[in-house]
Amino acid sequence: MGQVFSGLNCPYYCSVELDESKDDPPSQDSKQMEGAIGMLLTWAVWIAVFVLDLNLLINEFNDTDSEPYLLQLAAFVCFCVSAGMIIIFTLSHYTWMPSLPFASKKYGEKARMLPAFGNAIIVAGLKASNWFTILLLILAGISHERDAYKTLIAQLCLKTLGTTMTMVNQRYKAYASVQSA
Questions:
Q1: Which pLDDT belongs to residue 14?
Q2: For 57, 58, 72, 176, which has the most beta carbons within 10 A of its beta carbon?
Q3: Is the pLDDT of residue 77 over 90?
Q4: CB 76: neighbour CB atoms within 10 A?
């Protein structure tokens, strides 16, 4: 399974394990499998966050004159800005900037890192979305909106997991780059 995904030339920020294992010969090592599972898990978490955020915005907090609506809208927009940056960098990786890839090539040619502004926008948007969800969770707890409260708890857990996985991919790549230098 891992070898299938390593052939996709995925950017390192999708799965740093897959990126780092390109030079490894096929073996019984689980590195590529772990990388594939990690990438699929990361995508699943972010898709779930998008769907839950959109659902909360449309079905739970849809009174446009209320504070919960404003907080949910802010959480959703911040998430979408981060997701948009990842999509833009991924499109550039595959289309208009293939000579400057965010994925390592075989035989030691390492991937270039995301530019600092891109990484900052991605992480800041994810963290801001998390904080807006925390504020909304407090507000929903005060107003006793039980169904929304349950969804917000799940949402906060997923956003925290997704943000951590995203940051770990970036930090691991930076660490591996320093170690190989």
A1: 76
A2: 72
A3: yes
A4: 21
More confident residue, 29 or 129: 129
Residue carrying structure tokens 């943000």? 163
Instruction: State the average pLDDT for the chain.
Output: 82
What are the angstrom distances between the C-alpha of 102 and each of 51, 74, 131, 139?
27, 29, 29, 40
What's this model's pTM, rounded to 2 decimal places? 0.83
Give residue 144's pLDDT.
Answer: 64
| Structure tokens belonging to residue 27 | 């073996």
Show the tokens assigned to 81: 């800005």
* Whether the predicted pLDDT of 152 surpasses 80: yes
Distances from the Cα of 9 to the Cαs of 73, 78, 104, 141, 173, in angstroms? 34, 28, 8, 45, 16
At residue 112, what are phi and psi to the nearest 5 degrees? -85, 155
Measured in whole angstroms, how far is the alpha carbon of residue 35 from the centre of its chain?
Answer: 15
Cβ neighbours around 28 below 10 Å, total: 4
